[in-house]
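Researcher: We're teaching a course module on how sequence relates to structure. For the next exercise, students receive a sequence and then see the predicted structure as tokens, so they can try to spot secondary structure elements on their own. Here is the exercise chain.
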Amino acid sequence: MYQKRKMILDARAKVLKAMAHPSRLFILEQLEKGERNVCDLTEMIGADVSTISKHLSVLRQAGIVTDDKRGNQVFYQLSVPCILNFFDCVESVLSAQANAQVACLANSPTE
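Model: And here is the predicted structure for the students to work with:
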């Protein structure tokens, strides 16, 4: 039973690892608005084409984005747009952390 569960957890970890980079998160935000090609993303991020292509490859291999080749260009889109719902949960964690820090500071003695 553990092996089956481990396979599921490994698959989840692969998706999370693929998203664990600020540029990739930015790419996902941009793809939420619509499909983009490497040139569009390169201009937005300010990195070279090979770097953006590598980020897109990681996202594609994790199943987060799909690609569509049209002539000389490849366009990318989210394979499952609900992946961005995950960010709502992340924002809740960040908010809870900030609130805990504020509460800690409010309760600390001042000199």
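Model: If you want an answer key for the exercise: The longest helix spans residues 85-107. The chain has one domain: 2-80.
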